[in-house]
Structure formats: C-alpha cells, structure tokens
Fold these 2 entries.
Entry 1:
Amino acid sequence: MTLCNGVNPQRISGDLMFAYDFSNGGGNVDINYYVWDSTLNKGVGAWVAKGDITSLVDSNLDPVVEATTDATGIKGEMAVNLSKLPGVFTADTCKDFGAAWAKTRSSTSFQSEIKDYVTPQPTVISNCAPLEILKEDSGTAPLAGATFSITANAGTHAVPAGQSPCTTQADGFCRVAIPNTNPQAYAFPLLFPGSYHVVETAAPPGYLLPANAAAGTNVTVPQAKNADGVVIPLTVHDPLGSIAFEKVDAVSGAHICCATFHIVRTAPDPADGVTYDKTVTDNKTTSLATGEVADTDNRNGFIGVSNVFTGTYTVTETNPPAGYNLPDAGVGSRTLGVTVSQGVTTGTWAANDNVFSDPTVPSITAVKSSDPASGTVEPDRGRAGPDDQLHGRLHQQWGFTCRRRGRD
Ligand SMILES: [Ca+2]
C-alpha cells in the first residue's frame, strides 16, 4: 500500500528511519534514529526522535551503528545492527521489515528533501523465520484442509501467539490467519529460531493421517534452503484407503472371475466435498474407461480397489461372470456396504460380509413337461432325429436356453 505520491510505502507504527546527517562541513556524520507512531497527529502519524545513536555500543562495547564519509563529504556508508538497537526487536514478538529505501535532502530539515530517491526495495529483515509445511497426497498433488500443530522443543522460544495451529490451503502450504485483515490474509507461521515439533492433527477431507502422524516431526527454524535459495518445506504425504472383496460361486464357493462392480461413496458425501463413483472389473487393469479403476488383486474372484477416500460406500455387482446370474432381488447380497476410516484403512464391511455369491446359469435344462399334443413325456434319444426338432421347439416355447444332451 502506498501513499498519494505512489512511491512512499504506507507507514505503520514501528517503522524505522535513520537520518544520515553531515556536520562540520561534511567531514563527519551523525546518525539520528526515529520510530514511526501512527497514533500521533490525530491518527496521521509522525516520526518520534530517539536521539543520536552515532556512538551507541552494545553490552560488549561493539558499535551498534557505523557510519563513515569520504574526504570530500559526498559519499558515505552506514551500517546498523538492528538486533542491538533498542526498541526494534523484543524477545517476545516476531517483527518483520519488508522494504528499505533511501531519499536525499539538501539540509538537516526533513522538509528540504530533493526529489531523487531510491524506490522502496523488498527486503527480509526479521528476528523470526517462517515455518513452511507442505501437504501433498501420496504423489505431489497439493492438498488443502490439513491441520498441523506446532510446539517448541526444549530450549526454544515459545511459539508466538496465533502461529499454531496452521491449516493447509489450495497450494498445499500451511498458513495461519493474519489478524485484522480484510479480505482475510494468511501467512506462514512465524517463529523464533530454534527447534519445533510439528504434528498433523487432521488430514484433508477423505484422506488418512500417515501411520506415523502422531509421532510428529522435529523441524529446525530457519529451515534449510536449496541451491536457488528457496526454503525446503517440511513435506507430509497423506495416503488414501483401500477396499477388497470377493466373488464366488454360490454353491461351490469357488472364486470366479470376472464380474464388474459399481462403487459409490454415500457418506459423508457430499458434505465434505469428496465424491467417488467408480466401476471395477475383476482382473482388469488396462484399457480402463472413464470412471473405471484397476483391480489391484490379480487373483480370480478377489478384487482390490486402492485410493479410496475415507467414508462409507456401497459396492454393487452390476455384471456377473460369464455363466452366472446376479442373485435375485432380496436374495443374497447384490449390494454390500463398507466404511473406510482412520482406524480401518482397508474398510469395515457391513455384517462382516465382503463376498458376492452368484448362482450359476443352468447349463442343462431337464424339460419334464408333456407334449401338448400327445400328453407323453418327451424321451431323450441321445442322438439327432425327428424328435429333436420338437425338443427344440418346446424349449423355445418355454423360453429356456439349453443344449441337446448327448451331442456335445
Ligand atoms: Ca482379481
């Protein structure tokens, strides 16, 4: 935010100014120190003089400020140790300076500035450092909605107020809300240098906490940077659950391939914004259509589905194996329910039943009906003959699908 001239940053309380004042004809330099107070001048704000700090030394008698000028008095340099300057940083509050700039003036009066200046330059001056936590799925997709708590390990300054817990946003990074911002702004947790303990306390909707989540992770602040000077965040991957079920012959119990199933998330969908509506076919892993997932179990009659969100599902057999029928409605289990949760990542099945039992399609149909014309039972002659035409006609009339015995 800038003031009316489009250059000056909007000052806030705590901003610092150092006046580089020549004296004795330019041969010496005095440094005067000022702090901005926004409450002065009926809220307009003003600089408050903190005095001449040219000769200020710290407890080791090391200079806090060093300023020199060349013999001609037209070139000078100044360095200041902000960590030793009274009133800048305190032991209990993280404080940042985000920009620095210089202006020139023609006399000791503030009002006599000349209109050349160095535009404000972004800078990072702080007594604290951000803690960057990145939440991703089992791959590298960022996840919003995870919550992390941050506590200080022994020997480290306590976590400043408002810096824990943080919540991950759409880019996967964990941030805390910045008070008194409209629209609401967020920032990385800002911590004093030291060692901290980070624990993921809530996974993003639909995801599981990692197996070692409760143990947490120790992180040192400031965090290490890569060769490009970019902070290497603490990256935490959250997994998804899985479910497994079986397909058997209703009579023999033998496992049979290759039925198709429809899997739909029914709760808490859509309250948490997570939806799942997929199909899977036993032993099918390639040439998958849209909405179709691979079977992760290569055994006949055993079906596995991975990357399942937490929640409750119905699993419905929609296409039986060749030679089988779906159980009649109300008989057997066409639809089975399963719940995937933090405690049971592979799913808890309703009634402890994850088996679909299908009846076989009759391969031989013994027709016991009488011939409508003669009233006699059709004999089985075991060979092709004139009666086979009648045989076939009867079957067709009754709608059976059959084969002629003795000929195959
Ligand atoms: Ca399988």
Entry 2:
Amino acid sequence: MTRQTTVMRICISCRKTFDRNHLIKITKDHKQGILFQKGMGRSAYICKAKKCYSDSKIKKKLQKALKTFLDPEFIDIFEKEITSYNDYPNKGI
Ligand SMILES: [Zn+2]
C-alpha cells in the first residue's frame, strides 16, 4: 500500500499555500551553505511566480526566513536557479 500525502508549504513572498512540488526550496545547509531543492537545515519556500522571486524585498525575506546573511551574489544565483526551474513547459503560473 502506498501512502501519498500532499505536503503544503507557504511561499515566503506571496504567503499563499502551494503543493510543495510547485515551490522552490531554499535551504541553509549546515555544511554546504545555501542550497536549492536539497540540503538539510532551515528551509524557505518560494513559488514560481515572477512577481515573487523578482520581488525587491525577496532577499530580505529570505534572510529572515533562513536566519542568515546572504551574499550580494546570492540573488543572481537565485534568479538563475529559479528561472531554470521555470523553463519546464506548460506551467502557466
Ligand atoms: Zn509566491
């Protein structure tokens, strides 16, 4: 018997609840620092809506959610990561 549960998480930007599979997970890993979609540690979730990840306050929100300081370069990496996830076809978010 398979147990299938939908894990719901809140986007830190728009505060809407989504199926975790539709969100990008950003984790502050204890050893490796900030990771996308993997890692162990404090995590924040953000949806794939452009207005969320390109929000000018997103870095602040992430820093607060992850309780860490993010490098200025982080936001470039973050945008690259998140737009690459957006490349999946026919996701009309
Ligand atoms: Zn959002």
